[in-house]
Amino acid sequence: MRQWRLSIVVGVLALFTVSCLVLAQEISVLEEKTSDGIAYVSGGIGIEERGALSALAKTKEYNLKLEFIMISGQYTSGATVMIQDASGKTVLQAESDGPWFYAKLPPGDYTFTAALGDQKRVQRLSVEKRLQALKFYWK
Questions:
Q1: Boundaries of domain holding 89
Q2: In the chain, at which end, N or C, are there fewer CB atoms within 10 A of the end residue's CB?
Q3: How far apart, in whole angstroms, are the C-alpha atoms of residue 66 and residue 98?
Q4: Which range, of 21-30, 71-80, 111-120, 123-132, averages the lowest pLDDT?
Q5: More confident residue, 5 or 52
């Protein structure tokens, strides 16, 4: 009976270790980048990568999340993102590597432009220190 319990414990620990290694590998694949001093990361293709991206975003204290979604409900990637401050200066311009895009912006008023193919979407948001999200929908 004792050997049976020990086998279960060893099995659970092995599974936990493998899960941690997979998560660590996913996080290391997601590379933080900067544009004009603004840190950002994007990705989220697949459930595992979205989980890793969420975990990374919490540890890096990002305060903005952009999501790119088709009207059908499916996520999409490849959107070009442009963020302008209240004076109209572009503070970040990048292409998203997936349906989720996180950035760490100084608090303030911003205009967010996302383009996918020939479609362009514009939203405005007063960014705070806490995480806020905007969703962009595409046809």
A1: 2-138
A2: N
A3: 10
A4: 21-30
A5: 52
